[in-house]
Amino acid sequence: MALFRVTTSRINETSKLFPQLTAVLRQLSDASTDLKAVLAAKIPKEQERIKSFRKSHGSTKVGEVTIDMMYGGMRGIKGLVCETSVLDADEGIRFRGFTIPECQKMLPKAPGGEEPLPEGLFWLLITGDVPNNNQVKALSKEWAERAALPAHVVTLLNNMPNTVHPMSQLSAAVTVLNSESKFAKAYASGVHKSKYWEYIYEDSMDLIAKLPVVAATIYRNTFKDGSGIGAIDTSKDWSYNFTSMLGYDDPQFIELMRLYLTIHSDHEGGNVSAHTVHLVGSALSDPYISFAAGLNGLAGPLHGLANQEVLIWLEKLRTQLGDKATESQLKDFIWKTLKSGQVVPGYGHAVLRKTDPRYTCQREFAMKHLPNDPLFQLVSSIYKVVPPILLETGKVKNPWPNVDAHSGVLLQYYGLKEMNYYTVLFGVSRALGVLASLVWDRALGLPIERPKSMSTDGLMKALKA
Protein backbone atom coordinates (compact mmCIF):
# COMPACT_ATOMS: atom_id res chain seq x y z
CA MET A 1 0.00 0.00 0.00
CA ALA A 2 2.88 2.36 0.76
CA LEU A 3 4.26 1.91 -2.72
CA PHE A 4 0.82 2.56 -4.19
CA ARG A 5 0.46 5.79 -2.16
CA VAL A 6 3.84 7.01 -3.38
CA THR A 7 2.96 6.16 -6.97
CA THR A 8 -0.39 7.94 -6.90
CA SER A 9 1.05 10.97 -5.14
CA ARG A 10 3.36 11.44 -8.10
CA ILE A 11 0.65 11.27 -10.76
CA ASN A 12 -0.13 14.97 -10.84
CA GLU A 13 3.59 15.84 -10.91
CA THR A 14 4.27 13.59 -13.90
CA SER A 15 1.06 14.27 -15.83
CA LYS A 16 2.46 17.15 -17.86
CA LEU A 17 5.65 15.31 -18.81
CA PHE A 18 4.28 11.79 -19.27
CA PRO A 19 0.56 11.95 -20.13
CA GLN A 20 0.42 8.40 -21.50
CA LEU A 21 2.16 6.99 -18.41
CA THR A 22 -0.21 8.95 -16.23
CA ALA A 23 -3.19 7.40 -18.00
CA VAL A 24 -1.79 3.91 -17.48
CA LEU A 25 -1.11 4.55 -13.78
CA ARG A 26 -4.66 5.75 -13.26
CA GLN A 27 -6.16 2.87 -15.22
CA LEU A 28 -4.23 0.16 -13.39
CA SER A 29 -5.48 1.20 -9.95
CA ASP A 30 -8.52 -1.11 -9.76
CA ALA A 31 -7.55 -4.72 -9.08
CA SER A 32 -11.07 -6.19 -8.97
CA THR A 33 -11.59 -9.24 -11.19
CA ASP A 34 -15.36 -8.62 -11.37
CA LEU A 35 -15.74 -6.90 -14.75
CA LYS A 36 -19.41 -6.05 -14.25
CA ALA A 37 -18.70 -4.41 -10.89
CA VAL A 38 -15.86 -2.37 -12.38
CA LEU A 39 -18.17 -1.26 -15.18
CA ALA A 40 -21.01 -0.45 -12.79
CA ALA A 41 -18.72 1.90 -10.88
CA LYS A 42 -17.65 3.71 -14.05
CA ILE A 43 -21.01 4.20 -15.74
CA PRO A 44 -22.49 6.86 -13.39
CA LYS A 45 -19.30 8.94 -13.67
CA GLU A 46 -19.33 8.73 -17.45
CA GLN A 47 -23.05 9.51 -17.61
CA GLU A 48 -22.47 12.67 -15.58
CA ARG A 49 -19.39 13.68 -17.59
CA ILE A 50 -21.26 13.43 -20.89
CA LYS A 51 -24.38 15.09 -19.50
CA SER A 52 -22.29 18.06 -18.38
CA PHE A 53 -20.43 18.20 -21.69
CA ARG A 54 -23.66 18.21 -23.71
CA LYS A 55 -25.19 20.84 -21.47
CA SER A 56 -22.23 23.16 -22.03
CA HIS A 57 -21.50 22.43 -25.69
CA GLY A 58 -24.56 20.75 -27.16
CA SER A 59 -25.09 23.41 -29.83
CA THR A 60 -21.44 23.56 -30.92
CA LYS A 61 -20.85 22.62 -34.56
CA VAL A 62 -18.22 19.92 -35.19
CA GLY A 63 -18.15 20.00 -39.01
CA GLU A 64 -20.10 20.55 -42.16
CA VAL A 65 -21.82 18.29 -44.65
CA THR A 66 -21.23 18.60 -48.39
CA ILE A 67 -23.24 17.26 -51.29
CA ASP A 68 -20.38 14.88 -52.14
CA MET A 69 -20.50 13.47 -48.61
CA MET A 70 -24.22 12.77 -48.93
CA TYR A 71 -23.84 10.98 -52.26
CA GLY A 72 -20.52 9.39 -51.31
CA GLY A 73 -21.68 7.08 -48.55
CA MET A 74 -21.57 9.73 -45.78
CA ARG A 75 -17.78 9.46 -45.90
CA GLY A 76 -16.11 12.00 -43.63
CA ILE A 77 -19.31 13.12 -41.92
CA LYS A 78 -18.79 13.43 -38.16
CA GLY A 79 -22.05 11.97 -36.96
CA LEU A 80 -21.32 9.15 -34.50
CA VAL A 81 -19.80 8.75 -31.06
CA CYS A 82 -17.60 5.68 -30.49
CA GLU A 83 -15.78 5.40 -27.17
CA THR A 84 -13.98 2.09 -27.71
CA SER A 85 -11.66 3.03 -30.59
CA VAL A 86 -10.80 5.87 -32.93
CA LEU A 87 -9.30 5.55 -36.40
CA ASP A 88 -6.78 8.24 -37.28
CA ALA A 89 -5.93 8.65 -40.96
CA ASP A 90 -2.21 8.95 -40.22
CA GLU A 91 -1.75 6.88 -37.06
CA GLY A 92 -4.21 4.07 -37.63
CA ILE A 93 -6.46 2.52 -35.01
CA ARG A 94 -6.20 3.33 -31.32
CA PHE A 95 -8.03 1.16 -28.80
CA ARG A 96 -9.05 3.48 -25.94
CA GLY A 97 -6.14 5.70 -26.92
CA PHE A 98 -3.54 2.94 -27.33
CA THR A 99 -1.93 1.83 -30.60
CA ILE A 100 -1.62 -1.81 -31.61
CA PRO A 101 2.11 -1.95 -30.72
CA GLU A 102 1.32 -0.47 -27.31
CA CYS A 103 -1.43 -3.05 -26.76
CA GLN A 104 0.96 -5.82 -27.79
CA LYS A 105 3.38 -4.70 -25.09
CA MET A 106 1.07 -3.93 -22.18
CA LEU A 107 -1.91 -6.30 -22.41
CA PRO A 108 -1.62 -9.63 -20.55
CA LYS A 109 -0.44 -12.70 -22.44
CA ALA A 110 -0.90 -16.43 -21.97
CA PRO A 111 1.88 -18.15 -19.96
CA GLY A 112 4.86 -18.29 -22.30
CA GLY A 113 2.92 -16.42 -25.00
CA GLU A 114 4.00 -13.45 -27.10
CA GLU A 115 0.74 -11.91 -28.31
CA PRO A 116 -1.96 -10.14 -26.29
CA LEU A 117 -5.02 -12.05 -25.16
CA PRO A 118 -8.32 -10.81 -26.69
CA GLU A 119 -9.85 -10.95 -23.21
CA GLY A 120 -7.46 -8.19 -22.18
CA LEU A 121 -8.48 -6.04 -25.12
CA PHE A 122 -12.17 -6.55 -24.33
CA TRP A 123 -11.55 -5.42 -20.74
CA LEU A 124 -9.75 -2.36 -22.10
CA LEU A 125 -12.48 -1.60 -24.65
CA ILE A 126 -15.38 -1.86 -22.25
CA THR A 127 -13.80 -0.14 -19.23
CA GLY A 128 -10.99 2.01 -20.58
CA ASP A 129 -8.72 0.30 -18.03
CA VAL A 130 -5.59 -1.72 -18.75
CA PRO A 131 -6.32 -5.08 -17.08
CA ASN A 132 -3.92 -7.14 -15.01
CA ASN A 133 -3.26 -10.87 -15.36
CA ASN A 134 -5.80 -11.86 -12.71
CA GLN A 135 -8.56 -9.84 -14.34
CA VAL A 136 -7.92 -11.41 -17.73
CA LYS A 137 -7.69 -14.90 -16.25
CA ALA A 138 -11.03 -14.37 -14.51
CA LEU A 139 -12.59 -13.24 -17.79
CA SER A 140 -11.23 -16.29 -19.63
CA LYS A 141 -12.77 -18.54 -16.99
CA GLU A 142 -16.10 -16.73 -17.06
CA TRP A 143 -16.38 -16.99 -20.85
CA ALA A 144 -15.51 -20.70 -20.69
CA GLU A 145 -18.27 -21.24 -18.12
CA ARG A 146 -20.84 -19.39 -20.28
CA ALA A 147 -19.94 -21.20 -23.53
CA ALA A 148 -22.55 -23.99 -23.65
CA LEU A 149 -25.07 -23.82 -26.50
CA PRO A 150 -28.79 -24.54 -26.11
CA ALA A 151 -29.90 -27.78 -27.74
CA HIS A 152 -31.99 -26.13 -30.46
CA VAL A 153 -28.99 -24.15 -31.72
CA VAL A 154 -26.86 -27.31 -31.88
CA THR A 155 -29.68 -29.01 -33.81
CA LEU A 156 -29.91 -26.07 -36.21
CA LEU A 157 -26.18 -26.13 -36.92
CA ASN A 158 -25.99 -29.88 -37.33
CA ASN A 159 -28.86 -29.87 -39.81
CA MET A 160 -27.55 -26.98 -41.88
CA PRO A 161 -26.47 -28.11 -45.39
CA ASN A 162 -22.75 -27.60 -45.91
CA THR A 163 -23.63 -25.74 -49.10
CA VAL A 164 -24.83 -22.80 -46.98
CA HIS A 165 -22.09 -20.18 -46.69
CA PRO A 166 -20.40 -20.22 -43.26
CA MET A 167 -21.33 -16.57 -42.67
CA SER A 168 -24.98 -17.34 -43.35
CA GLN A 169 -24.76 -20.20 -40.86
CA LEU A 170 -23.16 -17.93 -38.26
CA SER A 171 -25.77 -15.21 -38.74
CA ALA A 172 -28.61 -17.73 -38.50
CA ALA A 173 -27.23 -19.34 -35.34
CA VAL A 174 -26.68 -15.99 -33.61
CA THR A 175 -30.19 -14.88 -34.53
CA VAL A 176 -31.71 -18.07 -33.10
CA LEU A 177 -29.62 -17.67 -29.94
CA ASN A 178 -31.77 -14.67 -29.07
CA SER A 179 -34.13 -17.15 -27.44
CA GLU A 180 -31.65 -16.87 -24.55
CA SER A 181 -31.68 -13.07 -24.40
CA LYS A 182 -31.85 -11.77 -20.84
CA PHE A 183 -32.39 -8.25 -22.18
CA ALA A 184 -35.42 -9.26 -24.26
CA LYS A 185 -37.00 -10.96 -21.25
CA ALA A 186 -36.25 -8.01 -18.95
CA TYR A 187 -37.63 -5.49 -21.45
CA ALA A 188 -40.82 -7.52 -21.83
CA SER A 189 -41.21 -7.53 -18.05
CA GLY A 190 -40.98 -3.72 -17.92
CA VAL A 191 -37.51 -3.22 -16.43
CA HIS A 192 -36.50 0.44 -15.96
CA LYS A 193 -34.30 1.85 -18.72
CA SER A 194 -31.54 2.64 -16.22
CA LYS A 195 -31.03 -1.14 -15.95
CA TYR A 196 -30.90 -1.81 -19.69
CA TRP A 197 -27.11 -1.85 -19.80
CA GLU A 198 -26.90 -4.63 -17.22
CA TYR A 199 -28.95 -7.02 -19.35
CA ILE A 200 -27.17 -5.96 -22.54
CA TYR A 201 -23.92 -6.72 -20.70
CA GLU A 202 -25.12 -10.19 -19.69
CA ASP A 203 -26.24 -11.00 -23.23
CA SER A 204 -22.98 -9.69 -24.67
CA MET A 205 -20.89 -11.79 -22.29
CA ASP A 206 -22.96 -14.87 -23.15
CA LEU A 207 -22.73 -14.21 -26.87
CA ILE A 208 -18.96 -13.65 -26.87
CA ALA A 209 -18.54 -16.85 -24.85
CA LYS A 210 -20.67 -18.90 -27.23
CA LEU A 211 -19.36 -17.56 -30.54
CA PRO A 212 -16.25 -19.78 -30.70
CA VAL A 213 -18.41 -22.85 -30.08
CA VAL A 214 -20.82 -21.83 -32.86
CA ALA A 215 -17.99 -20.93 -35.23
CA ALA A 216 -16.04 -24.13 -34.56
CA THR A 217 -19.16 -26.25 -35.08
CA ILE A 218 -19.72 -24.54 -38.44
CA TYR A 219 -16.11 -25.24 -39.45
CA ARG A 220 -16.19 -28.92 -38.43
CA ASN A 221 -19.57 -29.53 -40.10
CA THR A 222 -18.79 -27.65 -43.32
CA PHE A 223 -15.18 -28.50 -44.04
CA LYS A 224 -14.28 -31.54 -41.93
CA ASP A 225 -15.99 -34.77 -41.00
CA GLY A 226 -18.61 -33.25 -38.73
CA SER A 227 -17.06 -34.79 -35.63
CA GLY A 228 -17.57 -33.12 -32.28
CA ILE A 229 -15.54 -30.07 -31.28
CA GLY A 230 -14.55 -31.38 -27.87
CA ALA A 231 -14.98 -29.85 -24.45
CA ILE A 232 -14.09 -26.36 -23.31
CA ASP A 233 -11.07 -26.24 -20.99
CA THR A 234 -11.96 -23.70 -18.29
CA SER A 235 -8.28 -23.30 -17.41
CA LYS A 236 -7.40 -22.05 -20.90
CA ASP A 237 -8.00 -18.77 -22.67
CA TRP A 238 -10.68 -17.91 -25.26
CA SER A 239 -8.37 -18.17 -28.28
CA TYR A 240 -6.81 -21.44 -27.13
CA ASN A 241 -10.22 -23.07 -26.76
CA PHE A 242 -11.40 -21.71 -30.12
CA THR A 243 -8.30 -22.95 -31.95
CA SER A 244 -8.54 -26.32 -30.23
CA MET A 245 -12.21 -26.71 -31.19
CA LEU A 246 -11.28 -25.92 -34.81
CA GLY A 247 -8.90 -28.90 -34.62
CA TYR A 248 -5.51 -27.12 -34.48
CA ASP A 249 -2.87 -27.47 -31.77
CA ASP A 250 0.21 -25.72 -33.19
CA PRO A 251 1.36 -23.25 -30.47
CA GLN A 252 2.36 -20.72 -33.14
CA PHE A 253 -1.08 -20.88 -34.72
CA ILE A 254 -2.68 -20.36 -31.31
CA GLU A 255 -0.50 -17.25 -30.90
CA LEU A 256 -1.55 -16.06 -34.35
CA MET A 257 -5.22 -16.49 -33.41
CA ARG A 258 -4.68 -14.45 -30.25
CA LEU A 259 -3.20 -11.68 -32.38
CA TYR A 260 -5.85 -12.02 -35.11
CA LEU A 261 -8.79 -11.93 -32.70
CA THR A 262 -7.30 -8.89 -30.96
CA ILE A 263 -6.54 -6.68 -33.97
CA HIS A 264 -9.79 -7.37 -35.87
CA SER A 265 -11.98 -6.56 -32.86
CA ASP A 266 -12.79 -2.89 -33.45
CA HIS A 267 -12.25 -0.13 -36.03
CA GLU A 268 -14.28 2.75 -34.59
CA GLY A 269 -18.02 3.16 -35.16
CA GLY A 270 -18.52 4.04 -38.81
CA ASN A 271 -17.59 0.80 -40.57
CA VAL A 272 -20.50 -1.29 -41.85
CA SER A 273 -20.51 -3.99 -39.16
CA ALA A 274 -20.01 -1.66 -36.19
CA HIS A 275 -22.49 0.92 -37.44
CA THR A 276 -25.08 -1.76 -38.19
CA VAL A 277 -24.88 -3.21 -34.68
CA HIS A 278 -25.21 0.29 -33.23
CA LEU A 279 -28.11 1.18 -35.54
CA VAL A 280 -30.13 -2.00 -34.96
CA GLY A 281 -29.35 -1.86 -31.24
CA SER A 282 -30.67 1.71 -31.11
CA ALA A 283 -34.13 0.25 -31.78
CA LEU A 284 -33.62 -1.72 -28.54
CA SER A 285 -33.12 -4.96 -30.43
CA ASP A 286 -31.26 -7.43 -28.23
CA PRO A 287 -27.51 -8.04 -28.74
CA TYR A 288 -28.07 -11.30 -30.61
CA ILE A 289 -30.27 -9.76 -33.30
CA SER A 290 -28.14 -6.62 -33.43
CA PHE A 291 -24.91 -8.57 -33.86
CA ALA A 292 -26.47 -10.88 -36.47
CA ALA A 293 -27.33 -7.79 -38.50
CA GLY A 294 -23.73 -6.63 -38.21
CA LEU A 295 -22.53 -10.04 -39.39
CA ASN A 296 -24.63 -9.71 -42.52
CA GLY A 297 -22.85 -6.44 -43.27
CA LEU A 298 -19.46 -7.97 -42.51
CA ALA A 299 -20.17 -10.69 -45.08
CA GLY A 300 -19.98 -8.22 -47.98
CA PRO A 301 -16.96 -8.22 -50.34
CA LEU A 302 -16.26 -4.56 -49.55
CA HIS A 303 -15.95 -5.36 -45.84
CA GLY A 304 -15.02 -8.63 -44.13
CA LEU A 305 -15.00 -10.76 -47.25
CA ALA A 306 -12.12 -8.73 -48.67
CA ASN A 307 -9.35 -11.00 -47.36
CA GLN A 308 -10.83 -13.81 -49.45
CA GLU A 309 -10.73 -11.54 -52.52
CA VAL A 310 -7.02 -10.91 -51.85
CA LEU A 311 -6.20 -14.62 -51.85
CA ILE A 312 -8.15 -15.24 -55.04
CA TRP A 313 -6.17 -12.46 -56.73
CA LEU A 314 -2.87 -13.80 -55.36
CA GLU A 315 -3.59 -17.29 -56.65
CA LYS A 316 -4.41 -15.86 -60.06
CA LEU A 317 -1.07 -14.04 -60.02
CA ARG A 318 0.82 -17.19 -58.96
CA THR A 319 -0.85 -19.24 -61.66
CA GLN A 320 0.32 -16.83 -64.33
CA LEU A 321 3.73 -15.83 -62.97
CA GLY A 322 4.73 -18.52 -60.47
CA ASP A 323 6.40 -17.92 -57.09
CA LYS A 324 9.57 -16.37 -58.52
CA ALA A 325 8.06 -13.45 -60.42
CA THR A 326 10.41 -10.57 -61.10
CA GLU A 327 9.62 -7.00 -60.10
CA SER A 328 9.06 -6.16 -63.76
CA GLN A 329 6.57 -9.02 -64.17
CA LEU A 330 4.70 -7.95 -61.03
CA LYS A 331 4.43 -4.40 -62.27
CA ASP A 332 3.07 -5.55 -65.64
CA PHE A 333 0.50 -7.78 -63.92
CA ILE A 334 -0.64 -4.99 -61.60
CA TRP A 335 -0.97 -2.50 -64.45
CA LYS A 336 -3.04 -5.04 -66.42
CA THR A 337 -5.29 -5.49 -63.38
CA LEU A 338 -5.87 -1.75 -63.09
CA LYS A 339 -6.35 -1.16 -66.82
CA SER A 340 -8.97 -3.90 -66.93
CA GLY A 341 -11.09 -1.83 -64.55
CA GLN A 342 -10.32 -3.94 -61.47
CA VAL A 343 -8.71 -2.87 -58.21
CA VAL A 344 -5.73 -4.39 -56.43
CA PRO A 345 -7.49 -6.10 -53.50
CA GLY A 346 -6.11 -5.39 -50.06
CA TYR A 347 -4.87 -1.92 -50.94
CA GLY A 348 -6.52 1.37 -50.00
CA HIS A 349 -8.84 2.28 -47.14
CA ALA A 350 -11.75 4.66 -46.69
CA VAL A 351 -10.02 6.48 -43.83
CA LEU A 352 -6.38 5.42 -43.52
CA ARG A 353 -3.66 7.31 -45.35
CA LYS A 354 -0.78 5.04 -44.32
CA THR A 355 -0.01 1.33 -44.11
CA ASP A 356 -2.62 -0.27 -41.86
CA PRO A 357 -1.01 -1.05 -38.47
CA ARG A 358 -2.96 -4.31 -38.52
CA TYR A 359 -1.10 -5.22 -41.71
CA THR A 360 2.21 -4.23 -40.13
CA CYS A 361 1.84 -6.38 -37.00
CA GLN A 362 0.86 -9.40 -39.10
CA ARG A 363 3.86 -8.78 -41.36
CA GLU A 364 6.10 -8.71 -38.31
CA PHE A 365 4.60 -11.99 -37.14
CA ALA A 366 5.30 -13.54 -40.55
CA MET A 367 8.87 -12.23 -40.67
CA LYS A 368 9.48 -13.90 -37.32
CA HIS A 369 7.73 -17.22 -37.88
CA LEU A 370 7.48 -17.87 -41.64
CA PRO A 371 10.00 -15.67 -43.48
CA ASN A 372 10.63 -18.23 -46.23
CA ASP A 373 7.01 -19.02 -47.05
CA PRO A 374 6.55 -18.43 -50.82
CA LEU A 375 3.16 -16.75 -50.42
CA PHE A 376 4.48 -14.39 -47.74
CA GLN A 377 7.45 -13.54 -49.93
CA LEU A 378 5.08 -12.78 -52.80
CA VAL A 379 3.00 -10.49 -50.55
CA SER A 380 6.23 -8.74 -49.51
CA SER A 381 7.22 -8.21 -53.14
CA ILE A 382 3.79 -6.81 -53.97
CA TYR A 383 4.10 -4.45 -50.98
CA LYS A 384 7.14 -2.90 -52.67
CA VAL A 385 5.64 -2.35 -56.11
CA VAL A 386 1.93 -1.61 -55.66
CA PRO A 387 1.99 1.73 -53.74
CA PRO A 388 4.15 3.56 -56.33
CA ILE A 389 1.93 2.29 -59.16
CA LEU A 390 -1.26 3.38 -57.40
CA LEU A 391 0.24 6.81 -56.74
CA GLU A 392 1.21 7.06 -60.40
CA THR A 393 -2.42 6.63 -61.46
CA GLY A 394 -3.24 9.87 -59.67
CA LYS A 395 -6.60 8.48 -58.57
CA VAL A 396 -5.75 6.86 -55.23
CA LYS A 397 -5.52 8.79 -51.95
CA ASN A 398 -4.26 5.79 -50.00
CA PRO A 399 -1.98 3.42 -51.95
CA TRP A 400 -0.99 1.42 -48.86
CA PRO A 401 -2.07 -2.10 -47.83
CA ASN A 402 -4.83 -2.72 -45.32
CA VAL A 403 -5.35 -5.66 -42.98
CA ASP A 404 -6.91 -7.86 -45.67
CA ALA A 405 -3.72 -7.87 -47.73
CA HIS A 406 -2.03 -10.07 -45.13
CA SER A 407 -4.35 -12.00 -42.82
CA GLY A 408 -5.31 -14.75 -45.27
CA VAL A 409 -1.67 -15.53 -46.06
CA LEU A 410 -0.97 -16.38 -42.42
CA LEU A 411 -4.05 -18.57 -42.10
CA GLN A 412 -3.04 -20.44 -45.26
CA TYR A 413 0.43 -21.14 -43.89
CA TYR A 414 -0.89 -22.83 -40.74
CA GLY A 415 -3.29 -25.04 -42.68
CA LEU A 416 -6.58 -23.19 -42.37
CA LYS A 417 -7.04 -22.97 -46.13
CA GLU A 418 -10.83 -22.74 -46.38
CA MET A 419 -11.23 -19.14 -47.59
CA ASN A 420 -15.01 -19.13 -47.22
CA TYR A 421 -14.46 -19.42 -43.49
CA TYR A 422 -12.16 -16.46 -42.98
CA THR A 423 -14.93 -13.90 -42.49
CA VAL A 424 -16.31 -16.07 -39.67
CA LEU A 425 -13.04 -15.56 -37.81
CA PHE A 426 -13.38 -11.83 -38.45
CA GLY A 427 -16.93 -11.96 -37.06
CA VAL A 428 -15.90 -13.73 -33.86
CA SER A 429 -13.28 -11.04 -33.29
CA ARG A 430 -15.51 -8.09 -34.22
CA ALA A 431 -17.96 -9.09 -31.47
CA LEU A 432 -15.53 -7.78 -28.86
CA GLY A 433 -15.65 -4.20 -30.10
CA VAL A 434 -19.24 -3.83 -31.22
CA LEU A 435 -20.73 -5.46 -28.12
CA ALA A 436 -18.57 -3.38 -25.79
CA SER A 437 -19.93 -0.34 -27.61
CA LEU A 438 -23.49 -1.64 -27.40
CA VAL A 439 -23.26 -1.90 -23.62
CA TRP A 440 -22.22 1.76 -23.49
CA ASP A 441 -24.97 2.75 -25.94
CA ARG A 442 -27.54 1.58 -23.41
CA ALA A 443 -25.61 2.82 -20.38
CA LEU A 444 -25.60 6.31 -21.87
CA GLY A 445 -29.23 6.06 -22.97
CA LEU A 446 -28.48 6.84 -26.62
CA PRO A 447 -31.72 7.23 -28.63
CA ILE A 448 -32.87 5.45 -31.74
CA GLU A 449 -30.75 6.55 -34.70
CA ARG A 450 -32.72 8.44 -37.33
CA PRO A 451 -30.73 10.76 -39.61
CA LYS A 452 -32.63 13.03 -41.99
CA SER A 453 -32.49 12.21 -45.71
CA MET A 454 -33.34 14.40 -48.70
CA SER A 455 -34.20 13.85 -52.35
CA THR A 456 -32.00 15.16 -55.15
CA ASP A 457 -34.79 17.59 -56.11
CA GLY A 458 -34.93 18.77 -52.52
CA LEU A 459 -31.19 19.36 -52.43
CA MET A 460 -31.28 21.31 -55.66
CA LYS A 461 -34.14 23.43 -54.39
CA ALA A 462 -32.31 24.09 -51.13
CA LEU A 463 -29.19 25.22 -53.00
CA LYS A 464 -31.19 27.64 -55.12
CA ALA A 465 -32.76 29.10 -52.02
Notes on the protein architecture:
- By secondary structure, the protein is mostly helical.
- The protein folds into two domains: 65-305 and 420-449, Citrate Synthase, domain 1, CATH 1.10.580.10; 306-414, Cytochrome P450-Terp, domain 2 (Cytochrome p450-Terp, domain 2, Orthogonal Bundle).
- It is 60% helix and 2% strand.
- It has 23 helices and two strands.
- The protein has helices spanning 2-9, 11-14, 19-27, 35-57, 67-71, 100-106, 118-127, 133-145, 151-158, 166-176, 182-188, 196-223, 238-246, 251-263, 272-282, 287-298, 306-321, 327-339, 357-369, 374-393, 407-413, 422-443, 456-464; strands at residues 85-88, 92-95.
- It has a two-stranded antiparallel ribbon.
- Helix 18 crosses helix 20 (374-393).
- The chain is globular.
- Mean pLDDT is 91; it is low at 1-18.
- It holds the Pfam family Citrate_synt.
- It comes from Photinus pyralis (Common eastern firefly).
Q: Would you tell me the structural class of the helices and strands? A: mainly alpha
Low-pLDDT parts are 1-18
Order of helices and strands: HHHHHEEHHHHHHHHHHHHHHHHHH
In the CATH hierarchy, the third-tier topology of the largest domain is known as: Citrate Synthase, domain 1
The spatial strand order of the largest sheet comes to 1-2
Q: Average pLDDT, to the nearest integer? A: 91
Separation, N- and C-terminal Cα atoms: 68 Å
Beta-strand share of residues: under 5%
Largest sheet: 2 strands, antiparallel
CATH architecture assignment name of the largest domain? Orthogonal Bundle
Helix share bin: 55-70%
Main location: mitochondrion
Catalytic activity: oxaloacetate + acetyl-CoA + H2O = citrate + CoA + H(+)
Protein name: Citrate synthase
Pathway: Carbohydrate metabolism; tricarboxylic acid cycle; isocitrate from oxaloacetate: step 1/2
